[in-house]
Write a structure and sequence with these properties.
Alkaline Phosphatase, subunit A, alpha/beta, globular, 475 residues, 4-stranded antiparallel β-sheet, 17% strand
Length: 475
């Protein structure tokens, strides 16, 4: 039997409920709806980390951050080449590998402070290729392309547009919400999809392909082209109130007290206006959310374009996976961003899988993780013998899913059994512990860690967290 081509599509910072196949009415995402209609929609899929780099590396290797060492967006946490990964394993097994868009498998030097320069990026490109990529079309993040000379920045430069792109990014650095300043065709997510579409249409190799299309959006800055604002249902946007409860973050013991009131935030950069989310007025939230949803609608268009090209080239012999590295608060609890945030908006991500040959729409309510994607791809390609922390999704769902899901990173951990969620976060001089009951409190407003009736659940989740971190390290 001919091995299937594998098309992995990821968005960056995409909240699950932003898609119409998960119930959203503010925009429609017909192409992702069609994917869900011919595959499996996973309702309780969880990322291994709410940070970009650790989550992406967990998708790439099937390993949790504590196994791979890629536990932070910062410091020296790039993924080691000694770990088998999607690119290296599939290339060794007769596949040609390609990625278009964002990699972020190594910490980007965020300290770029030269607004009139775009610095060299060749060492990052060479590193990404060394992981087993045959072909790479690199757009390593909306802001990264203003700071560093990736493939997208090089094309902007050739067209004489890089100074304008760079100037807009720096001028808006404290604003985060503005319309894209160039023609739509230069928007990073459109560029990413166009590179992959062309690659597929011109693909002449006899080998099957492993393709990763990795969008930079809808990650901030919230900069969708103004032409896509019309895709947002303004009445639905106004009616869909931001989910928060008055006074819920007034307690200094709550993890995100400082994010809301000032003096800290959940995204590692200064949000606007000011550093306190409580200062955001309704007009600012509306503009932020409108641009975010417009970017999601754009991504849906691009997903449709690339899937159509892949189906024309390979027919139904395709494994198609769509997911996100993590979600986005998008105003829930009065917050935006994702770092150190274990609310469902961030941890529970969209996951759609269409197996070769297509099929009827299915939904899966079992607990699964993005660490399962590597094993799932290997299962479809008939590859065995590679140790991972995950399981083939098809076999896993039939077995009832994972009993617990985990998230890890620099200074934080979380574990959930599907009903209770325990989160521990350490910061210099302080730490926070929360226990949330998703059955009685689906809005996640109350920390019930001190209640007597919840102690058995707390003890169990703490024990699971310790066992998780004490497990044997993979070779």
């Amino acid at each position: 039997m001919e091995k299937p081509t594998i098309l992995l599509i990821t968005a960056d910072e995409l909240q699950k409920k932003a898609l119409s196949c998960y119930g959203n009415t503010i925009i429609q995402t017909p192409n992702l709806d069609r994917l869900a209609g011919t595959g499996v929609r996973y309702d309780r899929a969880y990322c291994a980390s709410p940070w970009c780099l650790p989550s992406r590396c967990s998708i790439l290797t099937g390993l949790f951050p504590s196994h791979s060492g890629a536990y932070s967006n910062f410091r020296k946490c790039e993924l080691s080449g000694r770990f088998p990964n999607l690119f290296s394993v599939f290339r060794e097994n007769g596949y040609r590998t390609a990625l278009s868009g964002k990699c972020h498998f190594a910490p980007v030097p965020y300290g770029q402070t030269k607004p009139d320069k775009t610095l060299p990026y060749k060492n990052f490109r060479d590193y990404y290729l060394s992981l087993g990529l045959d072909d790479l079309f690199l757009q390593d993040g909306k802001e990264v392309s203003a700071w560093f000379y990736d493939d997208y920045a090089a094309e902007l430069d050739k067209a004489g547009l890089l100074p304008a792109y760079r100037a807009a990014r720096w001028a808006r650095d404290t604003g985060k919400v503005y319309p894209f300043p160039l023609e739509d065709r230069w928007y990073p997510d459109i560029w990413t999809a166009n590179q992959m579409t062309t690659y597929i249409k011109e693909y002449a190799h006899p080998k099957p392909a492993l393709l990763w299309m990795s969008f930079s959006g809808p990650h901030y800055p919230f900069d969708a082209p103004a032409s896509y604002y019309a895709r947002v249902d303004e009445a639905a946007l106004a009616a869909h109130l931001i989910r928060r409860r008055e006074g819920e973050l007034d307690d200094p013991s709550r993890i995100h007290h400082k994010s809301y009131h000032g003096g800290g935030n959940i995204d590692g950069c200064g949000p606007a206006p000011g550093r306190a989310c409580k200062n955001y007025d309704e007009d600012y939230w509306a503009r932020l959310r409108r641009s975010y949803y417009a970017n999601v609608a754009l991504i849906d268009d691009m997903v449709g374009q690339v899937i159509a090209a892949a189906e024309e080239r390979w027919g139904d012999n395709l494994l198609i996976i769509f997911t996100a590295d993590h979600g986005e608060m998008l105003g829930s609890h009065g917050l935006w961003g994702k770092h150190n945030c274990m609310y469902e908006e961030v941890w529970n991500v969209p996951l759609l899988v269409r197996y070769p040959g297509k099929g009827a729409a299915e939904t899966c309510g079992e607990l699964v993780q993005l660490t399962d994607l590597f094993a799932t791809c290997m299962g479809a390609a008939g590859i065995a013998g590679i140790p991972t922390d995950g399981c083939d999704l098809g076999k896993l769902a039939a077995a009832g899913g994972h009993p617990y899901v985990f998230a890890e990173g620099e200074g934080y951990l979380a574990v959930s059994d599907g009903r209770y969620k325990y989160a521990h976060i350490r910061k210099p001089g302080e730490h926070f512990d929360e226990l949330l009951d998703l059955e009685k409190d689906p809005g996640e407003y109350e920390n019930v860690i001190g209640r007597e009736e919840n102690q058995p659940a707390l003890v169990d989740l703490e024990r699971q967290a310790v066992t998780h971190f004490m497990r044997e390290t993979l070779p």
